[in-house]
Write a structure and sequence with these properties.
By secondary structure, the protein is an alpha+beta fold. It has 5 helices and 7 strands, in the order ααβαββαββββα. The longest helix is centred in the first third of the chain and has 16 residues.
Length: 187
């Protein structure tokens, strides 16, 4: 029994020293999804009295699809009616407005979702392997109003920065760069 008590701390120390502190994809993914709250709604701000936005609505084909009505000519009888009015078909895509947005005739429209795709690779950034960078894919799923944001890619590569300190923690890019700079100066 005494020999077991002597060996037990040795095995515990050996177990702790030999633990693999490498950041795995599953841990990185769960931390990224939690920090950036995926999936995220993508919204677009429509200024309903702006002639430029009215033209954008016409050019996008949303009026033909029945989501908006655009006033092409404003007459005195129209009063302060906005140039762009959303129909009942657009209701599922309209986000709540503040009093100020209602006053200035601004409507935020949900144009899609930004979702986590997958981890591409994880690389150690320091020799002591206490800092890592995970490169991952973000996917964009657009709805009918997605035409308002032309050029938005179907997917995009992004990076997340991690540090090993009582387990892996996700940190901001600027903090990671500062830590790397300190390591360079110290050496």
């Amino acid at each position: 029994m005494k020999s077991l008590l002597r060996i037990l701390p040795l095995f515990s120390l050996l177990f702790i020293c030999c633990q693999n502190n490498k950041l795995d994809s599953k841990t990185a993914e769960s931390m990224i999804v939690k920090k950036y709250q995926f999936p995220q709604e993508i919204d677009f701000e429509v200024f309903c009295n702006d002639p430029g936005h009215a033209k954008k609505m016409l050019d996008s084909g949303l009026e033909e699809k029945g989501f908006v009505r655009v006033m092409k000519v404003r007459e005195p009888k129209d009063g302060d009616r906005p140039l762009i009015e959303f129909t009942d078909s657009a209701e599922p895509f309209l986000l709540e407005r503040t009093a100020e947005e209602r006053e200035y005739k601004i409507q935020n429209v949900k144009i899609g979702l930004r979702k986590f795709g997958e981890i591409i690779q994880i690389t150690a950034e320091t020799n002591d392997k206490k800092m890592a960078v995970a490169e991952y894919i973000v996917k964009y799923e657009l709805n009918e109003f997605g035409v308002l944001w032309p050029g938005l890619p179907a997917e995009k590569k992004e990076k997340a920065y991690f540090i090993l300190s009582d387990g892996w923690k996700i940190i901001d890019k600027k903090d990671a760069e500062l830590m790397m700079f300190r390591k360079i100066i110290e050496n």
